[in-house]
Amino acid sequence: MSTGRGPGAAAVDSLYGGVDSPIAALDEVVKLLATLVFVLAVVLTPPRAVWAFGLYVVVVGSVVVLARLPVRVFTRRLLVETPFVLFAAALPFVGTGPRTEVLGVAVSTTGAWAAWGILAKATLGCATTVVLAWSTPVPDVLRGLERLRVPKLLVAIAGFMVRYLDVVVGELHRLQIARVSRGDDARWLWQGRAVAATAGTMFVRSFERGERVQQAMLSRGFTGTFPSTGPTVQRVRWWPALLWPASAVAVSMLANVVTR
Question: What secondary structure letter does DSSP report for 91?
């Protein structure tokens, strides 16, 4: 369904699934706390505790099912971690320390464990944020951050980023159309100058637009807090939902004790 707000708007709105589910019905504060605690527990887990990451996969899988998140959408959104995968793939070959031979290639044992840790933790972290974005509208996330007493300046920056992403993407789309309509097809190295000029123009226009928006908001008495743009939805608090991140904390603590 088109909203008529430009290509960037669809990119932001598509993050939220809009599907009724037990996860979507939870209070945004509960979901934010659960995501934060679970990610911290995963990060603090030693990479050599492989069994712990297996339990984390079971937890994330159950939450994905409860959120009614389609597997195809879930796996497609996990592609955002591709840079981490590429970085981790190089560690076994450039790492130091003892080396072992795998399929005739000598790899670093330390680098292999580091690569496994980065890949496992990045995947689990991305998975939890994908579930959060699927089950929680962006305004609810911002409102939850305010309720958690996150500094208003950080919440305002995040709000601006979300609100004007469609504007910036739309401006970039128009600049690309203007360049192509003049016969430019930036697929070759010697056409990089046109791409660089587009990037520079994009930066200047975004900066000028930001100044105009700031002056307009200050003239209207902006105090640093965005007004509510819609009715507040009464959601279920269901604090027992924090049991799954609490179980992740217990697993992380046990893994740290066992691997000492």
Answer: H
Residue found under tokens 């939850």: 144
DSSP state, residue 236:
B
Alpha-carbon dihedral angle through residues 52, 54, 60, 62, given to the nearest 10 degrees: -120
Three-state DSSP at 223 gives coil
132, two tokens:
């959060």
User: How far is 204 from 91, CA to CA, in rounded Å?
Assistant: 39
Q: What is the largest CA-CA distance in the chain?
A: 69
- The pair of three-digit structure tokens given for residue 161, joined into one six-digit string: 């980023």
SS3 100: strand
Question: Over the Cα atoms of the chain, what is R_g?
Answer: 23
| Opening angle at CA 251, ends 248 and 51, nearest 5 | 110
Give pLDDT tens digits for 50-77. 999 999 999 999 999 999 999 899 998 8
Among 184, 64, 174, CA closest to 127:
64
DSSP string, 22-70: TTTTB-HHHHHHHHHHHHHHHHTS-TT-HHHHHHHHHHHHHHHHHTT--
Res 208 pLDDT > 70: yes
